[in-house]
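Fig. S4 source data, part A: sequence.
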Amino acid sequence: MHYDLIIVGAGPAGIFTALELLKNNSDKKILLVEKGKAVEKRHCPKAEVGHCVNCKPNCAITTGFSGAGAFSDGKLSLSYEVGGDLPMLIGEEFAQELIDYTDKIYLEFGADKKLEGTKYKDEVDKIKNKARKEGIQLVDIPIRHLGTEKAHELYKKIEDYLEENNIEMKFETIVEDLIIKENKIEGVKVKNTKNEKEELYANKVVLAVGRKGANWLSDMCIKHNINTKTGIVDIGIRYELPDEIMKDINKYMYEGKFIGKPGPFKDKVRTFCQNPSGFVSSEVYDNNLTLVNGHSYKDKKSTNTNLAILVSHNFTYPFNKPIDYGRNVAKNLNELGAGNVLVQRLGDIYRGKRTWEKELESNFVKPTLKSAVPGDITFAIGYRTMTDILHFIRDMDKIIEGFANPENLLYAPEIKFYSNQVVIDNKFETSVKNLYSIGDGGGMTRGLMMASCSGVQMARILINND
């Protein structure tokens, strides 16, 4: 089979590449290849059985049409100030124009018209000033909350639109290799769940594999000598505390994005993916790594807020394997939890002890992830990372009273994998001719909106290059 364009990955970056090509009346013969299932077939049985059953061959939470992010909290950050390096590539002003344009597409397909974080400017400014005194930056931006369950409906509409407009989609299909000859992409080698293999050829290939595919992309770059530079890996925890403590942040901003550089190491520490009245969740990545995440629904509510606290790890010469480092941390934590996410009370960390099941049962903050195993996450998270997190929590307590309450819960591992960053030019082309890289997997973006924007811009580049 021969196509004009093959897109590897049906997360937001890949989807919006195809969508924007259609909106510009492109007549390209396009194939979208996705290792997971169609959005309507994505289902996690954990809700029925109460624990992860390690679905094979792929986790329904992390793979499938719409990608991993859309199956978590489904939030669109509507500012160029967050979301990765795309503004550095195309300019901040143009990045904001892309966000505004892409947001309108989400609205066309049914996104909630309500914007969070725009109403209480004076109240937010007061919190900003308190944060500034503690050396912490508060980034307040407009947020459109899709909601985990509503995001499913929205992306189903997009999937149907692509199908109706003759975008071919191969689900449950793994790209085993790239076909590259004389430093020019010619196609991909794929395999489906029946172990049937074929070679698919195309004039151009776009890699939009997401964080789930970061490890695969790193392997491809090594195998085919695709230029990369050492990227980062974000390692941290998912923090759960009562809604009452976070009520001002939840009301005024919905999600507060706090960024600090606590001593003594001065590493970048940030909050990410805040879920008011949400639920902590687990998800399975490659090699059976179980990571923690958070969901926030439109209709289903808890009494707790959860958010990630992440430490950015920038490695220097001679080490150039950030993904391997993060995976080893996750593996050790999983082994401590017998394959599950670990949970520990903050006070127990301060006391230098593990958390026991009976202590968790009587704890004021009740865990929303019932499958989490009480234990000691400090056995596996490095001293530097743990020190950064604890100092950040103490600094945050001076901004939000109760943030460092000893009964608040830490879950681990929360790790955001980004590939050894693929080197691309201003047209998103890699060092291999006609091979492009966009989205989270190649280290360009972080999050739903910026990944979607990278897809829109990718499509425009392809149209202009014809």
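Fig. S4 source data, part B ends here. The first helix runs from residue 12 to 23.
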